[in-house]
Write a structure and sequence with these properties.
- This protein is α/β, with parallel strands linked by helices.
- The protein is 45% helix and 13% strand.
- The structure holds nicotinamide-adenine-dinucleotide and uridine-5'-diphosphate-glucuronic acid.
- The site of uridine-5'-diphosphate-glucuronic acid has 20 residues, from helix 9.
- Uridine-5'-diphosphate-glucuronic acid binds next to helix 9.
C-alpha cells in the first residue's frame, strides 16, 4: 500500500460538533494541508460557508475566529463527498453514532449505519490507497468491520484503518483542541499500520507535543474512548448520589467535593453535583459499553456501568419531583421559569439536556414552562420536546405549555418558581433583587447547577434550593 511521507490533503466526512471544530483547528495549525469537510446535510454546509460568522452551525467560543482564518485558504466545506474522498490521502469519519432506536440492541447499542455508509462510499469511490481514520466514537472492534467493507466493496485500492477518538468537550472545544491532554492513535502493528500512525501523528505534531501523542493497538484505542466517557460520567453520578444523601442529612455536597477533591488520588475535577449530566455522548457511550458487556456475556460488568445512567435518570427525576413537592404538590397552571436549556454553558447543543426531561415531567403535571437560554432557539426546544413525547397528543399538550423568551426578565416576571438548568455565567450577574420583587411569593429558586450564593438568595427573601444542600 502507498502511504505518503507527508499528507497533503485530508477529507473529513461529517461536519458536526466534532468534524467542524476539529478540522478547522487542523487547517489553522497546518496551512500546508488542504482540509475538506463534507456532509450530506446541505443546510449544515451552507451554514459553515455563511459569510456571517454568527451563523455557523456550531457555537463554540473561539471557533468563528479559527474558521475566519482558515476558510477559503486551506479549509473547505462542501457537499461533494465523492470529490472529497477521491482527492484525499487520509479520510476521517466523523459522523454521528446515536443509540439504536430499532431492532436488535434498540435503546442500547450504537447505531453504526452512518459509519457503514461512509465505509461503503469510500470503497466505491476511491481511486487510490487511503488511510481511513475513525474519529467517531465506536464500539471496540468496529475497525474490523470497516476494513471488511473496504476490502469487500473496493476496486483493488488498499486501505489502512486507524482509530483516533476525540476527547474535546463542548463549550471548550477550541481550547481542548489547541492543548489536548493527549491525542490517541490506534493502529495495526504491522509496518504499514505503524507508518499510517506516524502519518497522522505528524499532522498533530504541528502543534501538539510528541509526548502527548499516545499510540496503541486499534482495539485499545477504540475501547479507551468509551472507557474515558464512562469514568467521567461515573464521577458525576457518584457525586450526585452523595447529593441525595446530603439533602437528607444537612451536609453540603460542594463542601464534600472540595474535601475529597483535595486528595490528589481523587482529584478535584468533574465533581460538580448537578441536575444530571446531559450531552450527546455520556449516556449513549455508556449504554453502548453496557451492550458490549452483555454481548460478551459479562452481565456483572454491564450492570455495574448501567447504574451510572440509572443514577443520572434518578437525579433528573429527583429535581423535578422536588419542584412539584415544594410548590405544594402541584404545579398545574403555575409559571415556572427555566434559565437555560443547553446541556452545559457555552454551547447551543441541547442533546440529552437535563432541561428536556425536567420540563417534560413538570408539563405532565401541567406546569407552564417559560424558557430563556442565551444560545438555544425556539425551534430547537420544540424539536427536543417532540423527540421525548410519548405520543402526538402528548407533544401537542406540551407545545401549549411551553413559552419562549428572547430576554431573561420577562421569563421570570410573576413566576411561581425559577429553575436553573444550565450554568451560563450571565445568570450570576442578574439583578436578583428586582427578580424577587417581580415574582409571586413565596419565590422559589431551584438551582440545578449550584451557581448562586445560597446565603445571599436567602437574604433577598427567596426560598432557594441548590442540589445536595
Ligand atoms: P453531529 O450529529 O453533530 O454531526 C455528524 C454529522 O455527520 C452530521 O452533520 C450528519 O449530517 C453527518 N453525516 C451523517 N452521515 C453522513 C454520511 N453518510 N455522509 C456524510 N455526512 C454524514 O455529531 P457529533 O457531535 O459531531 O459527533 C460525531 C461523533 O463524534 C460521534 O460518534 C460522537 O460520539 C463523537 N464525539 C462527539 C463529541 C461531541 O462533543 N459532540 C466529542 C467526542 C466525540
Ligand atoms: C464529554 C467529555 O468531557 C469529553 O471528553 C468527550 O469527548 C465528550 O463528552 C464526548 O465524547 O462527546 P461534553 O459532553 O461535551 O464532553 O461535556 P462535559 O463537560 O463532559 O459535560 C457533560 C455533562 O456533564 C454536562 O451536562 C455537564 O453539565 C455535566 N457535568 C460535568 C456535571 O454535571 N458535573 C461535572 O462536574 C462536570
Amino acid at each position: 500500500m502507498t502511504i505518503p511521507n507527508t499528507i497533503k490533503t485530508i477529507t473529513c466526512i461529517g461536519a458536526g460538533y466534532v468534524g467542524g471544530p476539529t478540522m478547522a483547528v487542523i487547517a489553522q495549525k497546518c496551512p500546508h494541508i488542504k482540509v475538506n469537510v463534507v456532509d450530506i446535510n446541505p443546510d449544515r454546509i451552507a451554514a459553515w460557508n455563511d459569510s456571517n460568522l454568527n451563523s455557523l452551525p456550531v457555537y463554540e467560543p473561539g471557533l468563528a475566529e479559527v474558521v475566519e482564518e482558515a476558510r477559503g485558504r486551506n479549509l473547505f466545506f462542501s457537499t461533494e463527498i465523492d470529490d472529497g474522498i477521491r482527492e484525499a490521502e487520509m479520510i476521517f469519519i466523523s459522523v454521528n453514532t446515536p443509540t439504536k432506536d430499532y431492532g436488535l440492541g434498540k435503546g442500547m447499542a450504537a447505531d453504526l449505519k452512518y459509519v457503514e455508509l461512509c465505509a461503503r462510499q469510500i470503497a466505491r469511490v476511491a481511486e487510490s490507497d487511503k488511510i481511513v481514520v475513525e474519529k467517531s466514537t465506536l464500539p471496540v472492534r468496529t475497525a474490523e468491520s470497516i476494513r471488511t467493507i473496504l476490502e469487500a466493496e473496493g476496486n483493488g485500492q488498499q486501505f489502512k484503518v486507524l482509530s483516533n477518538p476525540e476527547f474535546l468537550a463542548e463549550g471548550t472545544a477550541i481550547a481542548d483542541l489547541y492543548a489536548p491532554d493527549r491525542v490517541l492513535i490506534g493502529g495495526e502493528q504491522d509496518e504499514e499500520g505503524q507508518k499510517s500512525i506516524q502519518a497522522l501523528a505528524d499532522i498533530y505534531a504541528n502543534w501538539v507535543n510528541r509526548e502527548n501523542i499516545i499510540t496503541t493497538r486499534l482495539w485499545s484505542s477504540e475501547l479507551s474512548k468509551l472507557t474515558a466517557n464512562a469514568f467521567l460520567a461515573q464521577r458525576i453520578s457518584s457525586i450526585n448520589a452523595i447529593s441525595a444523601l446530603c439533602e437528607k442529612t444537612g451536609a453540603d455536597v460542594d463542601e464534600i467535593a472540595r474535601a475529597i477533591g483535595a486528595d490528589t488520588r481523587i482529584g478535584s475535577k468533574f465533581l460538580k453535583s448537578s441536575v444530571g449530566f446531559g450531552g450527546s455522548c455520556f449516556q449513549k457511550d455508556i449504554l453502548n459499553l453496557v451492550y458490549l458487556c452483555r454481548h460478551f456475556n459479562l452481565p456483572e460488568v454491564a450492570d455495574y456501568w448501567e447504574q451510572v445512567v440509572k443514577m443520572n435518570d434518578y437525579q433528573k427525576h429527583r429535581f423535578a419531583k422536588q419542584i412539584i413537592d415544594s410548590l405544594f404538590n402541584s404545579v398545574s397552571g403555575k409559571k415556572i421559569a427555566f434559565l437555560g436549556w443547553a446541556f452545559k454553558k457555552d454551547t447551543n447543543d441541547t442533546r440529552e439536556s437535563a432541561a428536556i426531561y425536567v420540563a417534560k415531567e413538570l408539563m405532565l403535571d401541567k406546569a407552564e414552562i417559560h424558557v430563556f437560554d442565551p444560545k438555544v432557539t425556539k425551534e430547537r426546544i420544540v424539536e427536543d420536546l417532540k423527540n421525548v413525547a410519548a405520543s402526538k397528543a402528548e407533544f401537542k399538550a406540551m407545545k401549549k405549555l411551553i413559552h419562549f423568551h428572547d430576554e431573561p426578565y420577562p421569563a421570570m416576571n410573576e413566576a411561581h418558581a425559577i429553575a436553573i438548568l444550565t450554568e451560563w455565567d450571565e445568570f450570576k450577574t442578574y439583578d436578583w433583587s428586582s427578580i424577587y420583587n417581580n415574582m409571586l411569593k413565596p419565590a422559589f429558586v431551584f438551582d440545578g447547577r449550584n451557581i448562586l450564593n445560597s446565603a445571599k438568595m436567602d437574604e433577598l427573601g427567596f426560598r432557594y434550593k441548590g442540589v445536595g444542600k
